[in-house]
Amino acid sequence: MLERLKSLRALDLEVASRASIAVVVPLVVLVLVGRIDWAAYASFGAMASLYGRNEPYRLRARTVSVAAAFLLVSVAAGLALSVTGASLPVLVLGLMLVITAGILLASTFGLFPGTPIFFVFAYLVCAQVPAPAHELLPRLLVAVASAALAWLLTMSGWAARRLAGDRFGDLFKQLPRMPLLRPAAFRDAQVWFTILQNLVGVLLAGGLALSVGIGHPYWAVVSVVAVLPPPRAAHSLSRAGHRIVGTVLGVAVTALVLLPGPSVWVLILVIAIGQFGAEILIGKHYGAALLFVTPLALTVAHLADPVAVPTLLVDRVVETALGGVVAVLIVLTVRGLARRRSRRLA
């Protein structure tokens, strides 16, 4: 039995379990108080639990605190734009600031993932969901409470390890990741080049999605940010392929769940399973992880702003493909520029 438990460490069960609890508990509370329409704010606050995996606790506290703080800033910015009915140029300017600050923070504090995908997702969804002015503070407080719970859960392993002591030490996953603090990251030309790639990509993808009248244009933007690599990471075309194929298959899974019109409790169960499966697979196979990420994201979007399910599913596939194509074009362009530069230097 002990050996079996040891073998399960490789599946990141500890990380996946606390991430699922972090998102499910706030959603259950919202159902009980009759405000499941606030699900997006709880879900984005809970995303703080996705940071700091495999990091020693003295460093994890810093990582999760920084991630949680900027997630809340992103939610607050999106909420403010929704309440004020901000124009498209203001929304785009805010998006550019979120991307720039998100990449700078990730590079400075060694966040993983090193892309601003969760910050961008939180900002855009909260900006798109209609919100009356008198509910701005309560909705934001839901995100704050959810982020606080996620912080506590993410740090809970410290107490568990202290109580277990040496007797059960082998049952716990090792914590080898050491995030590097780089205060001078804002001076790194590669960081700013990555920011430029993301800004160009989201403007192209978002502009194309709006011009052809596709609903939920933020999916195209999120797809670009998800595919483009962080600073100094390899530019890979396979990631775009994995995202498109994984999303299509994930949409098929989501259709089986949403089309029958399940109860809200079933939807919360789907979110819990999606969060758990995504955390298990995200470090092993990106395409397979999207079989869980896609139902998770679509179910949260459906709870926050219900629309016809077929429309939601079609929009997701079309815009993910659009964002993926834009990201591929940027990757190919960067590769071409790098080859030309190498030839000139040679």
The pLDDT mean sits at 85
Number of strands: 0
Which residues sit in consecutive blocks of at least 5 with pLDDT less than 50? 1-8
Count of domains: 1
Strand content: under 5%
What general form does the structure show? globular
**Succession of helices and strands:** HHHHHHHHHHHHH
Secondary-structure blueprint of this entry?
Blueprint: H1 2-7, H2 13-32, H3 39-46, H4 57-84, H5 88-109, H6 117-128, H7 136-164, H8 189-211, H9 218-227, H10 237-258, H11 264-281, H12 286-304, H13 309-345
Helix pairs in contact: 2-3, 2-7, 2-11, 3-4, 3-7, 4-5, 4-6, 4-7, 5-6, 5-8, 6-9, 8-9, 8-13, 9-13, 10-12, 10-13, 11-12
Keywords: Membrane, Transmembrane, Transmembrane helix
Protein name: FUSC family protein
Membrane topology: Multi-pass membrane protein
